[in-house]
Amino acid sequence: MSSQKVSSKNKAVDAARKKIQSNRTEDFNASEIAAAIVEGKREELAKAITLIESEKPSDRPLAQELLKAVKDLSSGKETLRIGITGIPGVGKSTFIERLGLDMINDGDRVAVLAIDPSSKKTGGSILGDKTRMDELAVHNAAFVRPSPAAAALGGVARATMEAIILCEAAGYNKIIIETVGVGQSETSVREMVDVFTLLLIGGAGDEIQGIKRGIVEMADLIVVHKADGDRIDTCIKTAQSYSNSIHLSPIPDGG
Predict the structure, then answer these.
(1) pTM of the prediction?
(2) To the nearest whole percent, how much of the chain has pLDDT over 70?
(3) Could you tell me which CATH number the domain at 80-246 has?
(4) pLDDT tens per residue, range 98-113
(5) Domain residue spans of the chain
(6) CA of 73: how far to CAs of 46, 62, 70, 103, in Å?
(7) Topology of 3-73 in CATH?
(8) 202 within 8 A of 106, measured Cβ to Cβ
């Protein structure tokens, strides 16, 4: 392909991208979208989260207008926010799908905000968590939204708090936040949730290491995951080890 054709193709792609971005905000009526969210329409909820996650300065006034409209219309019903953290490979997505389906069986509506890691080089994100919750993601009583962490620290995305507010307004009474899962820096989510849960794998580190790095002390629940097959004994020992170590840890703020 000649350089002239490549240049023309790139210009066409850029023009199409700009048109899509322009149409997204020009056709966006905050009051109408807010009303649709409160009615529980998932497509509009997804559109709203895309707006609040936008890094374009020109989108911020519209995002703020939308959040205000949603707060004015929402019922303020009681909800439960649950944060799930743990190292990559611990099985957070699998655990969340099972937990979410059990909640739905109990009559709840469940929203999952899954934060995926972003490339430090490109800023891109695979957003693969949703593909590991295939049953939950298509359930009528669930909303699963993957979001890139981008440059945000603390295990959450920049607009996670706003996304929680939107999901609650849409009638989801159980909100689950899955953190990036990069290790011990994921503490911001604890300030956003009612229950902060740490997932562990049997035999993956001793309790002293956990205490030194701080995340164990902040957890409201510690779950030793993947306790099946020939891993049961190892998982039981890990649970006992962490149970003993908790007695040596300071009590988290608020009890």
Answers:
(1) 0.77
(2) 67
(3) 3.40.50.300
(4) 999 999 999 999 999 9
(5) 3-73, 80-246
(6) 18, 17, 5, 26
(7) 1.20.5
(8) no
